[in-house]
């Protein structure tokens, strides 16, 4: 069977050991059929929605107010104040979380501290066994988790399912990796003294996650944090807390009480309290540059170790010799999957001037076939809403200012009709390197296309952004692909691809994108410390 890419973050079982878990596949035939039914006049198509309440793929019934998870139990917050949690496809409130309080953090950190000696004393094999069991429990509840993620984050169910599969894979990988860690062999570097290195956990780690991949980002943190022998207090994003709380519930009876704790609430309250807490040994945050900077500043007071995974503005450099169709097909998914709300999204396209017009035609053709809708409408929906009303306004503001500044809307450029926070997939042309839309992270379904005339200026322009998370080069020249991968100042560089991840390979940025590394054995290193032990055996026995 032939496959083509469709979703961004996920693991497809039919690919077996190929852990390209941020790209899933559907049969080409299915896509061709869909293309035939979506005509070019649907360029600014209306939003696909369930025809009736009973036609909804999943219910929107209130879920009950969410609590915190501390010491293996669901517990209420000290604060009675709550924040509403919405379904972004309809704008309906589906649950709420506490805004949180310092007292919540104190209780969770105390539980994590009490659980630390027992958890870190376990052998890597024993910790791995628990993480494998947790992975199995997540897999057994994958449909429920994917449905909740789709409901809360506005993701197509297929994409949410791939996030859950990738979550399972992350726990399984970390369970294996911690048993296979390598270090310097013991040796005699001073006469009569034997040195060896032990790898130890850091202690209690505070983890703070974003809203765009809620359960997957929790796994990217919890997998290596717990495998390395740390205990954890995790604060989910207040917009999308549901699956993280559910993951903690699934850990009951698998992880010892107190090893994993969840405190819901606002970044400025719970996140800040976690960052400052004297019994928290490290803080790991995935989020915007602004939040990362706040966390790093606050952590400096107590000289805490900080792990930062921040924003991105991926440059996609398309040369004259590139396969333009492959590039356009990839950007269809890598730029618009998860509604463009991806730190590695293929959002800033730079095309050689000789193929610019041809490429824009191909890209517009691709983007025009995207099916935008409420994930509850069914499997044909490829792109959902953006996460919140506020974010909706922010993205539309970026588009309006770009147009006011002279950009041309090649496709999209407007809000979707009806309820919910939809933005049509948008391609902007006639933009240049120093425009707001090409240099700032929009974090929505907006791709800009610039022209360049030669390789050197293209590299210079790609590197001129404040971010340094990921970039891609499209060329048939092996020389150019390899040479430019060295010259580009980004943590990941793809050649003739974009947004493909492997659990075995590190993910993380440079410059304003932060300096933490997720995935791979490098993440285990980030959440561990080394200790040198030197034994003097020159003295005779007493
Ligand atoms: P955000 O910065 O608004 O929030 C991220 C988390 O930080 C939330 O849980 C929030 O409550 C918390 N927070 C906010 N202020 C805080 C403070 N002062 N102290 C402690 N915690 C605080 O980001 P977001 O809008 O949730 O996510 C989108 C951003 O995340 C984008 O910039 C995106 O590029 C980035 N992101 C990066 C990666 C990566 O791997 N590098 C992955 C996903 C998302």
Describe the structure.
The chain is an alpha/beta fold. Helices cover 36% and strands 19% of the residues. It contains 16 helices and 21 strands. The strands form 6 sheets. A 7-stranded mixed β-sheet has the order 16-17-18-15-14-19-20, sandwiched between helices. The chain starts with a strand and ends in a 6-residue tail after the last strand. Nicotinamide-adenine-dinucleotide is lined by residues 208-212, 217, 235, 237-238, 267-268, 271-272, 275, 285-288, 291, 294-295, 309-312, 343, 441, 443, 469, 509, 513.
Summarize, please.
With 542 residues, the chain is of the alpha/beta class. Helices cover 36% and strands 19% of the residues. Bound molecules: nicotinamide-adenine-dinucleotide (NAD).
Give keywords.
542 residues, alpha/beta, seven-stranded mixed beta sheet, five-stranded parallel beta sheet, 16 helices, 21 strands, 36% helix, globular, binds nicotinamide-adenine-dinucleotide
How would you summarize the topology of this molecule?
Elements (H helix, E strand, L loop, with lengths): L2 E3 L19 E3 H10 L30 E3 L2 E3 L6 E6 L4 E7 L3 H20 L2 H17 L1 H12 L3 H21 L9 E4 L2 E9 L2 E5 L5 H14 L3 E5 L6 H9 L9 E3 L4 H10 L5 E5 L2 H12 L4 E5 L5 E4 L5 H11 L13 E5 L3 H13 L20 H16 L3 E4 L14 E4 L6 H4 L6 E7 L2 H9 L6 E5 L3 H10 L4 E4 L24 H7 L1 E9 L6
Parallel strand pairs: 9-10, 9-12, 10-11, 12-13, 14-15, 14-19, 15-18, 17-18, 19-20
Antiparallel strand pairs: 1-2, 3-4, 5-6, 7-8, 8-21, 16-17
Helix pairs in contact: 2-8, 3-5, 4-5, 4-7, 5-6, 8-9, 10-11
The site of nicotinamide-adenine-dinucleotide has 31 residues, from α8, β12 and α9.
